[in-house]
Design a protein that fits this description.
Elements lengths: L5 E3 L4 E10 L4 E4 L7 E2 L2 H7 L6 E5 L4 E4 L1 H7 L1 E2 L2
Antiparallel strand pairs: 1-2, 1-7, 2-3, 2-5, 3-4, 5-6
Protein name: SH3 domain-containing protein
Length: 80
């Protein structure tokens, strides 16, 4: 499985841009076609309320989350 890209900002994070959210199945379809769809729990979905174009985050401790595109893109830059 391909790892998500790393970003730096207020903290380090791995993240993937979401092309499409399929709420009926809890599926987040990554913008990058080489990545597999991400399936989240109903609880995660309800708590984070993801939308198309936002970012799925994986923090260093393994916690996952969501951030709207504008906020993410203003706070984080690719960590090459």
């Amino acid at each position: 499985m391909k790892r998500y890209p790393s970003y730096k900002g207020p903290f380090s994070v791995r993240a993937v841009k979401i092309a499409r959210v399929v709420s009926a199945t809890g599926c987040l379809v990554p913008d990058e076609t080489s990545l597999l769809p991400i399936y989240v729990s109903e609880q995660w979905f309800d708590h984070n309320s993801p939308v198309d174009g936002g970012y799925y985050l994986v923090l260093a401790n393994g916690t996952t989350g969501y951030m709207e595109a504008e906020l993410f893109e203003n706070e984080f830059t690719p960590d090459h």
